[in-house]
Every structure is written in C-alpha cells, then in structure tokens.
Amino acid sequence: MGLVVTIFVNYKEERSMDWTAVTVITSSEAVEAVSYLLTDEGAQGIQIDDAADFAHLQSGKYGRYGEIIDPEEIPHRKQGAAVTGYFPKKTFVPEIVPTITTKVAKLKDYGLNPGENKVSAALVNNEEWATVWQKYYHPLRVTNELTIVPQWEDYTPEQDSEKLLYLDPGMAFGTGTHPTTRLMLQALEQVIRGGESLIDVGTGSGVLSIAAKQLGAGQVAAYDVDDVAVQSAKKNLALNPVASDVRLGVNSLLDGIHTQVDVIVANILAEIIVPLIPQAYDNLKPGGRFLISGIIDDKASLIRQELAEQDFIIDSETKMKDWHGIIAHKPAEEEA
C-alpha cells in the first residue's frame, strides 16, 4: 500500500467519466480486506490513506527534484485508514453502501478489526483523481536492496547495491509499503540467490515478480484470478526490463498447474492461503521454499497448523505490526 495511493485499474478505459467515491474509515490492519470488498462490489479503483504508512517514515529526498521533505509536513491521517472505492457514476450507491457496511463489520469474524467502519459517498470529477495522488507517492527504500520508485520520478540510487522497482500505482494493487508486501520483499531478499524458478500467486501489481527478477531469480511465472490485475501487472513489468520474460496468466491459485519450482510466493489473505498450501507442496521441488504473507495475528496459528499437516517445515516467521510473514520449505529428500 502507499502513502496516499489511488489505484485505477481501468484508467485508460474510464478516464472520460466522473465517479462516485465510497469511503470506508477502518483500521490499518483491515486495509487489504476492505480494498477487496470494495472491488467485489464493482469499484474500478481504490485509494488508500493509511496512517501506518507514516509510522516509520524518515525525512529524506522525497521531492521531485531531490529536495528533503519532512514526512510530518505531508498531509496524512494520524490514525487508522481511509479506503475509497471509485464507482462508475451510473452505480446506484444507496444500495451498495449498506452492503459494504455489513461486509466490513463481518471482518471481525476473520480476526480483523473493522475499525470505525464509517461509510460515506461523494461525487468526484475525473480531473480531481487523475493526478492528485502523484503528490504523495514517492521513492521508498523497502529493504536493504530494494527501492520502490513511481515511474514518473527521477531517482538516483544512493548505493551501488540498491535495486529499483518501477511501479505505476495508477494501474494495480501493491505499491510495496503495506506490511504484508514488505514482509514478502524481505523474504525474497533472504531466499533468492540467483537462478531460482519461481511462481508468484496472486501477483496484483507484479511487484514481487519484479523484485524476484531484480534479485536474480531465473524463470518466473505470475498468476492472478482477475484478468484486469494481470493486465495491470503486465504494464508494471514493462517498466522494468529485467522482468520482461515473466510469464503472466489468469488462474485461480495453482489450479491446473503441474510443475515443480524452487520458490512459490503468495501475499494473499490467510483464508485463501489455506487451500493453496497443498497445491504449493505439489508444485515445489524437494527443498523448495514457500513464502507467504497476508496473515493477520489471529490466523497465524491456523496457517502454522496447516503447514505442519502438509509436512512443510517452517524456517522463519517475521512480524510487522499485526501481520505475519512465513518462510517454509518442502523437505528435501534427505529430510524425508
């Protein structure tokens, strides 16, 4: 997620119309789930303003011309998060607002804090959203080696080892600053040594595939259940020549995939990770690594149990805010 990130998945197709913005005031931990709910109701884009994104942001060269900016001087929320879904003007909003309110409230049944769950709607002129978010999304170092750079920014690496991931957040989910994405980027940095084959499940913006290639991975395949997401990832991959050979496809998890690779990564919600676990086991080579995140506190024990029942061995578990990231591996032949 980004500082204030607007994600329009059909930007070129929809740029001529005005929008109805439906905003949900929620908690930082529920940002991804609320984004999914709004998209399921027909939102063509998502804007996220999350106070958690500023918690550890230091002063740095965030300006367009390299000027030093104090994060405290950037307008932002002081607590919680606001997730806005942008709906075509023709959408009958009075009908979907109660539905969204009910669905967000039920997130507590899945161990997520729905927060204030205040839902509001307003008309938005097309010109307002087209560029305003660019003022808030700037280069950000997310691991020791990886830096997320919006494609319109000129950025010079501060160290020779720094690897740049160019993204256009106007096209896809996943700008690299949400804890779940950062946990996966850190895990990739630990695991990738060079030449590994990898599958990215639920690729979203394609950020994990791009990172894997920047870190030296070999053959990479990326899948998402949504064709719009796949097309968005394709545009982001094109911004990063190192990822030009990533194979993209529309697929539900690993259904119908029968190939064994060195690494499988998935940054998706815990409920979706559960059915992925046996599929990942089948599609990993002996000794292959399984990197997962999107696991909220209350679901961590469930995922550990499911991994153990499938004979995965957990190598490490890290936590950022209320989210967990796990690196596990399929036993090598000598471990069997």
What does this structure look like?
The protein has 336 residues and is an alpha/beta fold. It folds into 2 domains: 4-135, Alpha-Beta Plaits, CATH 3.30.70; 170-335, Rossmann fold, CATH 3.40.50. Helix content is 26%, strand content 28%. The strands form 3 sheets. The chain has a 7-stranded mixed sheet, with helices on both faces. A 5-stranded antiparallel sheet has the order 1-3-4-2-5. The longest helix has 13 residues, at 93-105. It is globular, with a radius of gyration of 19 Å. It starts with a strand and ends in a 7-residue tail after the last strand.
Short description:
The chain has 336 residues and is an alpha/beta fold.
* Biggest pleated-sheet summary: 7 strands, mixed
Tell the overall outline.
Answer: globular
Strand order of the largest sheet: 11-10-9-12-13-15-14
Mean pLDDT across the residues is 83
Number of alpha- plus pi-helical segments: 9
Our Rg estimate from Cα atoms comes to 19 Å
The first-level CATH class of the largest domain is given as Alpha Beta
Sequence stretches where pLDDT stays below 50 over 5 or more residues: 1-16, 61-69
Order of helices and strands: EHEHEEHEHEEEHEHEHEEHEHEE
Number of domains: 2
CATH superfamily of the largest domain: Vaccinia Virus protein VP39
Strand content: 25-35%
User: Which structural category do the helix and sheet elements fall into?
Assistant: alpha/beta
N→C terminal distance: 39 Å
CATH domain topology of the largest domain: Rossmann fold
Secondary structure topology:
Blueprint: E1 4-8, H1 11-14, E2 19-26, H2 31-40, E3 45-50, E4 81-88, H3 93-105, E5 118-124, H4 126-131, E6 140-141, E7 146-150, E8 163-167, H5 179-191, E9 198-201, H6 207-214, E10 220-224, H7 227-238, E11 247-250, E12 261-267, H8 270-282, E13 284-296, H9 300-309, E14 313-320, E15 323-329
Parallel strand pairs: 7-8, 9-10, 9-12, 10-11, 12-13
Antiparallel strand pairs: 1-3, 2-4, 2-5, 3-4, 6-7, 13-15, 14-15
Helix pairs in contact: 8-9
